[in-house]
Amino acid sequence: MADRRAQLVTRVRGMLSDALGATRARLAAADAELTAGQQRLTKVRRAADAVPERVGAERDRRLAQLDTGQQARIADLAERAAEAARREAPGAASADWSGWQPTPSGPAEPPGAVRVGTLRIPGTVPVPALVPLLDAGHVHLSGADLAGDEAVVPALLLRSLGRTDPGAVRLIGYDPEHLGGGLAGFAPLTAAGLLTFVGPGGLGRLLDDLVEQIRRINETVLAGEYGSLRELAAATGRRPEPWRVAVLLGGDELNRHERGQLDRVVRTGTACGVHLVVRGVPLPEHPTVTRIVIGRDGARIGGPPGLAARLDPPPPAPLVTETCRTLAATVNAGPAPAPFAELLPPVEQMWQDDSATGLTAPIGSAANGRQVQLTLGDYPPHALIGGPSGTGKTNLIFAWIGALAARYSPDQLEFYLLDFKEGVSFARFAQGRRDPSWLPHMRLVGINVNTDREFGLALLRFLAEELRRRADAAKKHEVTKLAELRAVDPGGRWPRIVAVVDEFQMLLAGRDVVAREAADLLEDLARRGRSQGIHLVLASQDVRGIEALWGRPALVAQFTLRIALPKALRILAERNDAAQSLPRHHAVVNAESGMAEGNQVARIPSASDWESWSELQHRLWRMRPPDAAPARLFDGDAIPRLAEAPDFRALRADGTDRRAPVALLGEIIDVQARSAVLRLPRAPGRNLAVLGTRVDEACAVLDAAARSLARQHAPGTARFSIACLDPDADPAARALYEELADDAAWYDEETVPELMAETAEGLGRAGTPSVPHYLLLFAVDAAAGQLAGPAGRRSGLEQLRRILHDGPERRTHVLAWWRGVARMRVDLGGPAARTDQIGAWVALDVQGGELSSSLYPGTGGPDWYPRPWRGLFFDRSVHRTGQVVIPYGPAR
Ligand SMILES: Nc1ncnc2c1ncn2[C@@H]1O[C@H](COP(=O)(O)OP(=O)(O)OP(=O)(O)O)[C@@H](O)[C@H]1O
Fold first, then answer.
1. CA 54 to chain CA mean position, Å
2. For residue 586, which atom of ligand 1 is closest to its CA?
3. 286, 308, 332 — which closes off a domain?
4. How far is the CA of 761 from the centre of ligand 1 (A)?
5. Index of the ligand 1 atom closest to the CA of residue 395
6. Residue 296: what are its φ and ψ, rounded to 5°?
7. Are residues 816 and 775 in contact, defined by beta-carbon separation less than 8 angstroms?
8. Whose CA is nearest to atom 18 of ligand 1?
9. Same domain, yes or no, for 656 and 587?
10. Does residue 721 have a known ligand-binding role?
């Protein structure tokens, strides 16, 4: 048992020992594992301890990187924003107040936004804080700081004024609390109507008015064609309406109607240039409203929350007042003239229009920017232009002529122009000494014709003749109108004729034959000219001129096109007083005989200054047809020259002309610069008497007569006997004597009886002398004493009478100057003596009454009022009435 126990014990011990050993081994292993684990842990801990430091450094590095990038980007964006702002708001829209001055944008260019301060963005270049107003929207100001908005409102307004043309912005102030004090600096604008104040209680009316303006602009100016004035301006280059900026600075709460109107203005005003700058009045939400909330430390613009901005200081008060004063003065001085080029077609379209049915050209622009056209044709056929002196009639005529001449070629249109007032501005249409160009359409320019109403008559006679020619041609082709005549006669030249007579009342003044005939001719031309393409344009500054027409309603009725310049009276119909309120350089154009419903107001461009005209004239002149001749210039103040007279140049001495010789006495007042011609055939009475005391004119008439006769005779084939009995006439007579050289003989007081005796004796001989003999007697009446004594069988005077009586049939003609009609009658045999041997005379300073009884048909003598360097020529064999002549000047 004991063994078994011992065995058991041993076995147990053995087992225990094994277990212990195994346990120890496991323990050791566990220990080792623990140690290794601990070591790992320490390592991991150590490693773990190092991690946050690295990550933080990385994060910080990244953050720093981002920060720098962001700063650079913000700086870049700020720079770009500043640059864009400079472009959007150049010049006056953003310049600092020191050195600030207006810099208007062009008419087609929008004025852009304006600066009120600087955006707060730290660390960048300053970025201007811009607020859009004109053509862009409305501004609403609010906030605690009154001083702040006292800076914003003047800045907005002054900058807006500075970005637009003078007069293009109208301000309406409503400041019931300070009664305009908020806009005090702008007060000078009131003088030019650019600022109006609406008193307390006037807000409703003010808003109604703005709504009405918007309605009118939409209806008549934009007229469905443009979406806004800004679009219209961009498309046409014109801004026909001003911007209207209403500045509303507080007041009572709005009633329902006012709120409704304010809403309408906010919604629809911008397109029509109607804007609001408002404080203390709520504005509805709308994208066009920019809100500025002003606090003590700056403002927030736009939003909410909006951009933080530092506001600019207000513009210095003297700058505001001075700018406004200058603007008002500029506006009061009137608008800058519209350019003449507005009326002209593009160069490639010049002379492309056809005048078969009429002549149409623009004369200016209407308020809506569209051109106002003038038409002359079957209807309306003729025009009346009226306006007091200085209102622009001459300019309007220039503008109209230019607009027409640029459209129609000289084959389509001809002008005849007559200016009865003093001045030479129309002379530039003709060729001049300094400027060789002329207007190719111009056929005749008459200037300084105020004392030569006969020239007006000559023009009307010429037109009447042309009317007859056209009517005959129309009849021949069995048509009635110019358009039809041109269709059936395509090879013919049938331009429309426009005859312009400035100050035409001069032509109709008085009750003499000239006025009567002129009125008759005018009436006929006005009535029948319409269908033959002859159009009359009559201009007058003087209501009396129009009254001359008023007596002839049939004549007036033909002038259906009326053009009234500012303050013109009686050009328009009786109750149509549109001309009374016209601004400078505008005209009422009315093709309805002046009835109010036909009124169109046009702004007339400046066309009368030399430069604007000259460019066009030179262009058209270069386009002229190769055979174009310059216009005839009749200058009443100029003295014509014999050597330049077409009739003188046409005279020949080659024996080919079998007609009787002619003496040219002066230029007649007509359209073609013809000469007064005295034919000297072998017929009784073919002598000439020059009557009056004016030495120079008398010498000029005899000189031209002798020189023109000499030109028809080869040397040695005519005799000229010159007797001069007035020392004052001596130089002229001597010059003539020398000119005629071998064909001339000289006589004086002593020798003149010999001339009479010898010539009279010659007439007694049989046969006709082989050469003509012309006796040129200067101041022959001074020889009465010498001639009274016997010279041969008779007295010298008797011989003179015989020569006068018998000479012409024997080729002996007397061309003599008597210094008075009575003296001539004495020389002819006494007051009752016959005068039929004086077949022709030129009266100088002799009253018409003195020329009655036997010198002139009828009783009382001709209608003749002497005037310098003019004579009245009457040839009883050809004339019914006298003809005014301008003696040729002394040869140079
Ligand atoms: N549309 C215009 N734009 C700019 N200037 C103008 C315009 N019309 C006229 N003027 C200027 O006004 C002045 C007077 O004009 P104009 O000579 O045409 O007047 P008028 O009525 O013919 O005067 P008058 O009968 O005394 O000759 C001129 O200096 C002219 O250049």
1. 85
2. 1
3. 332
4. 69
5. 18
6. -70, -30
7. yes
8. 392
9. no
10. no
List residues near ligand 1 (CB under 6 A).
337, 387, 389-395, 541, 585, 604-606, 608-609
| Terminal CA-CA length for the chain | 189
Q: Do residues 269 and 316 both lie within one domain?
A: yes
CB-CB neighbours of 600 under 10 Å: 18
Identify the CATH number of the domain in which residue 763 sits: 3.40.50.300
H-helix or E-strand spanning residue 443: strand 442-447
Taking a C-beta distance cutoff of 8 angstroms, is the pair 456, 448 a contact?
A: no
Residues 225 and 262 reside in one and the same domain? yes
Residues 412 and 557 in one domain: yes
Whether 560 has a binding-site annotation, put simply, is: no
Q: Is residue 466 part of a domain?
A: yes
Counting from 1 in the atom list of ligand 1, the atom nearest the Cα of 398 is 18
- Ligand 1 centroid to Cα of residue 395, in Å, is 5
User: Is 700 a domain residue?
Assistant: yes
Q: 323 and 431, same structural domain?
A: no
pTM: 0.67
* The amino acid at 448: N
Cα of 433 vs centre of ligand 1, distance in Å, is 25
Low-confidence ranges of the chain (pLDDT < 50): none
| Residue 507 shares a structural domain with residue 561 | yes
Q: For residue 275, give the H/E element and its range.
A: strand 274-279
Share the mean pLDDT of the chain: 88
Q: Clarify whether residues 713 and 860 are in a common domain.
A: yes
Q: What spacing in Å lies between the alpha carbon of 671 and ligand 1's midpoint?
A: 28
Is 715 annotated for ligand binding?
no
What total of structural domains would you count in the chain?
4
313 CA to middle of ligand 1, Å?
Answer: 46
For residue 504, report the distance from its CA to the centre of ligand 1, in Å: 18
The protein residue with its alpha carbon nearest to ligand 1, atom 23, reads 390
Instruction: Decide: helix, strand or coil at residue 634.
Output: strand
Token pair listed for 228: 């806004």
Distance CA 35, CA 37 (A): 5
pLDDT digits (tens, 9 = 90+) for 692-702: 999 999 999 99
Sheet strand arrangement including 383-386:
371-377, 358-365, 599-603, 586-590, 561-564, 383-386, 534-540, 496-502, 413-419, 442-447, 632-635
Q: What is the identity of the amino acid at 317?
A: A
143 annotated ligand binder: no
If one residue of 424, 608, 613 were mutated to test the ligand 1 pocket, choosing by the most ligand atoms within 8 A of its CB, it would be: 608
Q: How far, in Å, from the CA of 128 to the mean position of ligand 1?
A: 47
3-state helix, strand, coil in the chain (%, to 5): 45, 20, 35
DSSP strand pairing (138-143 vs 289-295): parallel
Q: For residue 35, say whether it is annotated as part of any ligand binding site.
A: no
- How wide is the angle at C-alpha 88 spanned by C-alphas 84 and 93, nearest 5°? 125
ipTM of the complex: 0.98
> Is 387 marked within a binding site?
yes
- The separation between CA 402 and the C-alpha centre of its own chain, rounded to angstroms, equals 9
The protein residue whose alpha carbon is closest to atom 5 in ligand 1 is: 606
Report DSSP state, residue 820: S
Alpha-helical regions (H) of 217-316: 229-236, 256-268
890 token code pair: 């002394």
- Residue 266 resides in a domain: yes
201 is a domain residue: yes
Q: What is the pLDDT of residue 774?
A: 96
| Percent over 70 (pLDDT), the chain | 93
Range of the domain at 531: 340-345+364-620
Q: Is 228 marked as a binding-site residue?
A: no
Counting from 1 in the atom list of ligand 1, the atom nearest the Cα of 603 is 1
